[in-house]
Amino acid sequence: MDHDQQKDKPAETSELTSLIPVGEYVEEVAEGDRKVRRRGIYLLPNLFTTGTLFSGFFAIVAAMDGNFEKAAVAIFAAMFFDGMDGRVARLTGTQSEFGVQYDSLSDMVAFGVAPALVVFSWTLSGLGKVGWALAFIYTAGAALRLARFNTQVATADKRFFTGLASPAAAAVLASTVWVGADQAWVGTSQPYGLSILVAVLTGLAGVLMITNIPYHSFKGIDFKGRVPFVVFPVIVLALAIAMIDAPKVIMLVSLGYAFSGPVMRVFQRER
To answer: Considering only the top CATH level, what class is 43-270?
Structure first.
C-alpha cells in the first residue's frame, strides 16, 4: 500500500504544478572558480524594481485621466525606486542577471514610454502627427540609450554617463508637465506656443540620450566621508528654497543638468 502511495505522488505533484503554469527561474552564478545553478529570484531588490515599473504605469494611467500633476510625481517616484534597487542589491549582496534585465525593462517603461505619453497627453497631441512623432523620437532615444548602456556597462567610466541618462531626460519632461499642471496650463488654458516649445524640448531630450556627450554621474561622491560643517547648512537652505516652489526648482535643476553636457563640451573644445 505504501509503495502504491509513493507511486501516486509524482502524478499528484505534476497535476498540482500544471494548475500554476509558471516556470521556475534558474540562474547560473559564479562561486569562486566554478559556476553553480541557483533557483528563484531575490525578493527585496526586485520589489524596488517593481515599484519603478508600477510608478511608470501609474503615470500613464494618470495622464490618460487628465491628472498630469500625479503623472509627473509618479515619474519622480519611479526615479526614487530606480535609485534604490541597485543600492539595496549591492548592500545585501543580492545582485543577479535577472535583476539587471528586469531593471532595464522597467526603466524603459518608466523613463522611456511613460514620459513620452504623459507629455503627449498634456500638450503634444495638439500638434497632430508632429506631436506623436517627437514623442516617439524621445521613446526611441531612451531605448537606444538603455541598450547602449547595457552593452557598455562593464567597460564604461563610472564617473560619467555617455549621453543624457534616461531618468534625467524623464525628469526634464516630468518637471515641465508638473509646472504646467501647477500653473493650470491644461487644455485650452495653455499659452500660445507652449506645444511647440515642449515639442522641441522633447525631441532634444531624445537626441541628447544617444549622443556621446559625457555627463557627470556623481557616483564618485563619498557620502561616508567627512565634509566641512558649512556644507550641511547649505544643503538645508537649498532644500528649504526648493520647497517654496518645488515644480519650478526641479525643472530648473533638470534643465541645468541636461544642458550642462553640451555646454561643457563646447567649453572644452574652446580650451
So the answer is: mainly alpha
